Amino acid sequence: MSRYSWQRFSSFYRFNPSPRTFQKRDLASRSETLNEVMPAGSLKTYRKKRNLQHTPEPKGDGKKAGGKKPIFVIQKHAARQLHYDFRLQVRRALKSWAVPKGPSLNPSDKRMAAEVEDHPLGYAKFEGVIPKGEYGAGTVMVWDKGTYRNVTKKDNKKVPITKALKRGHVAVWLNGKKIKGGYALSRIAKGKKPRWLLVKMKDEKADARRKPTKSETKSALTGRTMQKIEKEEE
Ligand code: MN
């Protein structure tokens, strides 16, 4: 390459970062596989993956401080594949996992939970329809919500939630409308796409007969069904 053309080439890329950006956006709007190339742990990733002009999802710039108790939310998300997004508040973000089958009340069920990017705290109140062509397109319902307590212990000592997440062993006590009791999250695969298992702990809230994902089909926020949300929000 001659010096002249190299200069043209490099200045083009310096002043036109768009080709790469568009490629990323394009990929983001079509699939959730972007988790493979971007780290999960920051709201930057959340914003990068979405075109926030085109989706009703929160922009993640809310300044509102939360209450004293940290919150959790489980959102039913009819994307290409129906799943339940399990989110725990850690400071001003929501640590998030996509759980294809959703939570179980049976301690012998191991529910796969794919760690996804942190979501802004305001996302906990998001219920609506992500438009076709956008990242995660489909209907989102606030299936359950409430507060949680970090009950992670090691050698009989309390482990702070951030440390527990880092170590890959988290125990929480959920106090939701549909889901209550202890749940353990254990990381089974590290790397670009961390995988965890979500398992009901053996306590008085365990109930192998109740199948809340089947029997409870209405929003904990608005009482609406998925169909109603779809109708009203599109
Ligand atoms: Mn989702």
How many distinct folded domains? 1
Query: How many β-strands, per DSSP?
Result: 11
Rg over CA atoms, rounded to whole Å, is 20 Å
Tally of helical segments: 6
Given helix and strand content, the structural type is: alpha+beta
What does this structure look like?
The protein has 234 residues and is of the alpha+beta class. The protein is 22% helix and 33% strand. It is built from six helices and eleven strands. The strands form two sheets. Strands 1-2-3-4-11-10-9-6 form an eight-stranded antiparallel barrel. Strand 1 and strand 2 (82-90) form a beta hairpin. The protein is globular and about 50 Å long. The structure holds manganese (II) ion (MN). Manganese (II) ion is lined by residues 77, 79, 83, 85, 98, 136.
Secondary structure: elements and pairs:
Layout: H1 3-15, H2 18-30, H3 43-49, E1 71-78, E2 82-90, E3 93-99, E4 111-120, E5 128-130, E6 138-150, E7 153-154, E8 157-158, H4 161-167, E9 169-176, E10 180-189, E11 195-200, H5 212-215, H6 226-233
Antiparallel strand pairs: 1-2, 1-6, 2-3, 3-4, 4-11, 5-6, 6-9, 7-8, 9-10, 10-11
The structure holds manganese (II) ion.
Manganese (II) ion binds near residues 77, 83, 85, 98 and 136.
Name some characteristics of this structure.
6 helices, alpha+beta, 234 residues, globular, 11 strands
